[in-house]
Amino acid sequence: MKTFLNILLSIFIVQGFCQNNSIDNYQVQTSNSNSNANYVLINDYVGLDVDKKNSKVSFEFVSEDTFGTIGGLDFRIDFNPNDPENAVFKGTAEVKTLDTDNFLRDGHLMWEKFFYKKKYPKIAFSSKQVVAFEKNTFKVIGNLTIKGVTKEVIVTFSLDNKKLLGTTTIHTSDYGVNIHDEREKNKLNVKFHFPILK
Description:
Elements: H1 2-42, E1 56-61, E2 66-70, E3 74-78, E4 88-94, H2 103-109, E5 122-134, E6 137-146, E7 149-159, E8 163-171, E9 187-195
């Protein structure tokens, strides 16, 4: 009788161990599964689809009330508004495309004294950090290189469902482009217009 009871007790103990072990295994598997699911969601990068063909950069030379554009844009924007920390803004523009609607003035801007197109044919920008600032507003901090001089600038971008618009202000004399002797008279307001494709 004792032998029979001992056998039953042993069976219950073994079954209990197996059941507990199965639960532990399930919990581990579930935990791993959720971990993988979260990992996939975090890294499921979906950035904006920018219309490169119709993107443009314009500017205003404040002291002379002169407006213009620059083209030859070659850029990369990897930007998910929900994940700005991993965004990338970088690109170049061709100096020879500077257009202020004045043929003679545009020609003078290519000279060595100004943008020196022959030696420095491109203007370049590369982001270092992107920060969410307010609702649908982002600060893109990066390096702007003009005429071989690199300085940090901050471009403020606003976003809606149709476009990404950016603005910044620089002084051309900071980059060796001395239109006027006084720094403040070399203020340039720059605008970026990036349409969003559906």
